Amino acid sequence: MNTPLAQAAASARPPAQEPLLSIRVVEKRFGRRMVLRGISLNVAPGEFLTILGESGSGKTTLLRLIAGFEQLDRGEIWMGAERLDHLPAYRRQVNTVFQSYAIFPHLTVFENVAYGLRAKGAPQDEIPSRVNQALAMVKMEEFAQSSPSRLSGGQQQRVALARALVNRPRVLLLDEPLSALDANLRRQMQIELKSLQREVGITFLFVTHDQEEAMALSDRIALLREGVLEQIGSPREIYGHPVTAYAAQFIGQTNLLRAEVRDGIAQAGAIVWRSFGPPGLMMFSLRPECIRVVPPHALRLTPDVSVARFRGSIRNQTFGGAMDLLEIDCCNSQIIRARIPDPGPVNGEVEFEFEAKDATRVRETGPEN
Amino acid sequence: MYSRAYKAAVTIPPLVWVVAFLLIPYTTLFCYSFWSVSASQTVVHNWNLQNYVKLVHDPIYVTVLLRSMMIAACVMTCALLLGYPLAYYLSFYATKRKDLLYQLVIIPLWASYLVRGYAWKTILGTDGVLNGLLQFLHITHRPVEFLLYSPFAVILTLTHIYTPFAFLPIYASLEHVPRNLVEASHDLGASPWATFRRVVLPLSLPGAIAGATFAFVLTFGDFLAPLLVGGNSGIMIANIVASDFGAAFQWPIGAAISLCMLLLVVTILFSTERLERRLKLS
């Protein structure tokens, strides 16, 4: 059973091995502002873990705490059996790829990459071969003797990557490394980054605000919101089973339905479906691609609440290549977004349906204060 | 496009300035240096190289010139040794007190040069503050005389006066060192000392060179401090020029000395500027 799906399911499970990096109930405040509240997180060896969040969510601060550029106020950070948060930055076996690259302007590309090796006193005769190897890995060998000022942003990015990886860190920290690149270069670098990580087998801790990037690259995503860990899991897991309304909206597009649940039946406006679980007023997330158009003359043979049906008129239709995005106006101004493959022109009132199991219960509440 | 009148209005004033205050005086100086003074105390316009020959052969000029350069080098070294650590501390470690400390460095510049010169005279003199203290503490029994009227007094006074001039360009260059480079260096395993030596120092070198040049050139041409606290053994080359143009009435030789000093200073300025530019480019 070595299908891609099975592999995905395997990576969705929390890491079974001993964690390489362990963040334990970490708190950080700047003045009176609480930036991180009780963050606990384990990172497995060889994992590609993304810390995803909006600006101000504390994701960069968390990375800087691990690198040693900030001191935490409470909690502990461990790397294997070694307590990290008491060590100065230059004694930690982690390396950082900075958002602004932070290439030394007075040193050549070669000397930039050699910097860490020289600082740690690597044997002189080993340095050239290791530096060239690292530069080859990011396809920058021919620029070894160039001055960094002559390099483009993408090239500086590669040098920054080589400069960090040449030290063979146990964890590589990447602080929005691709955010300054244009869209095409960015996609290309994403692919390269992912294959590079597989090649070297180093644990990557990647910070970004771009959910698509996070989904494309990560083994697991840690979603951070206002200093609190909202949800952690594989991209598929978070997408398929978001725990909160925020997670559902932040990772992918979704419809949030507020429904009254009674006797195993959920009702949101005119839409009714089956829902197990506790009764009361509940929030559901329904992904746009879970909605189908009901063929014009299909008959519902048996009354069935495992499939919800509703009627609505199309308010807006956006062509999106493989799928069109429809904005469906159900009665009483309830708008549902649906992603439907090749629907052709849709006019007037149409009937739609979705599987009841695709409506996922989510928590409505944000972080507790 | 700008009108002719506008262009003229913008270009003529600086041109007039340069001609009136630089070109004419320096040409006059240049001419004087090839003339001589007759027995009847008038300047004779007989073109010759006597003044320059005298400069090279009379040991007094060479001695004082070398002493001036030695004093300038000492002041430069002291100003760097004081100014750099201060600027480094202020730029990297002073957080809340940064503005206050910066002002404390700058404020002495607002006090008159003469006041500061006289202050040192009062401190260093035989019945001065320092000698009073030494005798009060029974470290010495009679006043120590080498404190005042010596090259030491000149170096001390000028270090006090010119250290802020060295401090300012150093501070400016340190402020321009990107802090993420310091973080990157620590991240790559370099200790704070290694980070200073391999990142901060190289990147602030242009500022340090500019500061050193300021201290050296300003000291080299100084004549007030030696006048106030230098005594006979602290005389500098600018004092000789001043007396040649004053009581001694030796304008031609004074002009020759001035031109030599000018040549020296311009050479220093050009070479340090080239050095700074090369450091910034690489």
Strand composition percent of chain A = 25-35%
Spatial arrangement of strands, main beta sheet of chain B? 1-2
What class do helices, strands and sheet pairing of chain A give? Answer: alpha+beta
> What is the CATH homologous superfamily assignment of chain B?
MetI-like
CATH class of the largest domain in chain A: Alpha Beta
Overall geometric form of chain A: elongated
Amount of helix of chain B: over 70%
Number of helices of chain A: 9
Total separate domains of chain A: 2
CATH class of chain B: Mainly Alpha
- In the sheet with the most strands of chain A, the strands line up as 6-7-8-3-9-10
Query: In terms of quaternary structure, what is this?
Result: heterodimer
Instruction: Count the beta strands of chain A.
Output: 20
Strand content of chain B: under 5%
H/E element string of chain A? HEEEHEEEHHHEHEHEEHHEEEEEEEEEE
Major protein interface: A-B, 24 and 21 residues
The number of helices of chain B is 12
Average pLDDT figure of chain B: 90
Would you tell me which CATH topology of the largest domain in chain A applies? Rossmann fold
Structural class of chain B: mainly alpha
CATH superfamily of the largest domain in chain A: P-loop containing nucleotide triphosphate hydrolases
Describe this structure in words.
- The complex is a heterodimer of chains A (about 375) and B (about 280).
- Chain A has about 375 residues and is an alpha+beta fold.
- Chain A folds into two domains: about 5-95 and about 170-245, Rossmann fold, CATH 3.40.50.300; about 255-360, OB fold (Dihydrolipoamide Acetyltransferase, E2P).
- Chain A contains nine helices and 20 strands.
- Chain A has helices spanning about 5-10, 60-65, 110-120, 125-135, 155-165, 185-200, 210-215, 235-240, 245-250, and strands spanning about 20-30, 35-45, 50-55, 75-80, 80-85, 95, 170-175, 205-210, 220-225, 230-235, 255-260, 265-270, 270-275, 280-285, 290-295, 305-320, 325-330, 335-340, 350-355, 360.
- In chain A, the strands form four sheets. Chain A has a six-stranded mixed β-sheet with strand order 6-7-8-3-9-10, with helices on both faces. A five-stranded antiparallel β-sheet of chain A has the order 13-12-11-14-20. Chain A has a five-stranded antiparallel β-sheet with strand order 15-19-16-17-18, with no helix packed on it.
- Chain A is elongated, with a radius of gyration of 25 Å.
- The two termini of chain A are about 45 Å apart.
- Chain B is an all-alpha fold.
- Chain B has a single domain (about 50-280), classed as MetI-like (MetI-like fold, Orthogonal Bundle).
- Helix content of chain B is about 75%, strand content about 0%.
- A two-stranded antiparallel ribbon of chain B has the order 1-2.
- In chain B, a hairpin with a 5-residue loop joins strand 1 and strand 2.
- The longest helix of chain B is centred in the first third of the chain and has 34 residues, at about 60-90.
- The mean pLDDT of chain B is about 90.
- The chains are: A alpha+beta (about 375), B mainly alpha (about 280).
- The interface between A and B is medium-sized, with 24 and 21 residues.
